[in-house]
Amino acid sequence: MNSQSEERKVRLGLLLSNIRLEEKLLIQEAQRRPDVELTLVDSREIVLDLQNERSLDVLLDRDISQSRAMHALQLFQNSGVKTINSYEAVRVGGDKLLTSKALHDAGIHTPRVRVAFTPESALSAIEEMGYPVVLKPVDGSWGRLMAKIENRIAAEAILEHKSHLSSYFHSVFYLQEWIQKPGRDIRAFVIEGETICAAYRVSDHWLTNAARGGRAMECAVTPELHQLCVRAARAVSGECLAIDLMETSNGFTVHEVNCAMEFKESLKAVKADIPARIIDYCIKAARAAQHQKEYQHV
Ligand SMILES: Nc1ncnc2c1ncn2[C@@H]1O[C@H](COP(=O)(O)OP(=O)(O)O)[C@@H](O)[C@H]1O
Ligand SMILES: [Mg+2]
Q1: What is the CATH number of domain 113-177?
Q2: Which atom of ligand 1 has the smallest separation from the CA of 96?
Q3: Given this model, what pLDDT does residue 5 score?
Q4: What pLDDT score does 259 carry?
Q5: Which pLDDT score, from 0 to 100, does residue 3 have?
Q6: Counting ligands in written order, which one lies closest to the CA of residue 212?
Q7: 14 and 60 in contact (C-beta within 8 Å)?
Q8: Residue ranges per domain, the chain?
Q9: Which of these, 23, 143, 218, 220, could form a disulfide with 207 (CB 3.0-4.6 Å)?
Q10: CA nearest ligand 1 atom 1, residue
């Protein structure tokens, strides 16, 4: 080793709150690496100010709280810490409407979307789109509070219920065209411009995501799937994320990108060691950040 930075350990922070199996695997993986000094940054405990010198090279976001992650990432990023993913990627990826817009603008096939802000305008939008439609919270995950609306009577009932719920997010009506998919969707993992693996999520329910019981089966990463996922990751400026896609008679359609993605179900089906690949990338990014800082100080 000839440069100081190569001898120095990589100072890796994990931004988290609840520790799921994914975080346990990432922690174990980081602890196995002799060149990593790991710090757990619990977003429920930290207090940040506006101008901190941060003693980290890289901060990997694994926080289940989108709002805490976004704010923390912005402050760390502005203090010169490389964050994975970036504030911008988490902001866009954590909001289904912004994601749809970014995918659409990048020319990526994604389900047709309408957004409305009152029950009345949402009903007009649904009628205009035609049944069935899918109504989703813009900031939701795990398939929560999503509704497949099959007719006007159901639309009226759901919109009325929503209008009586207090959260601001229930007044953003994000509507998506129904995709007739073959009893499964696909979760593909992209790290630094490579689609490292993918898994089908198979279910009898229309919600096929793992959190709702979808079972993982390996899915081959064809050149088409690889390129599409890399383009989708790039569209949201993501470096390390999961792309959710559905198969249609007209090829793949990308419906979601997930930044602090879950992968425990996919791990049962894929060959890639997802946590190891994530930590590899963090180390690589940290080395690059160290070199850049040294270069700036020459
Ligand atoms: N437009 C759609 N048409 C048919 N099924 C859908 C549609 N959108 C989502 N789904 C199903 O619902 C699941 C969850 O949707 P998604 O948008 O990924 O939300 P979440 O953030 O909860 O994962 C998907 O995995 C898929 O099985
Ligand atoms: Mg999803």
Answers
A1: 3.30.1490.20
A2: 17
A3: 46
A4: 96
A5: 52
A6: 1
A7: yes
A8: 113-177
A9: 143
A10: 178
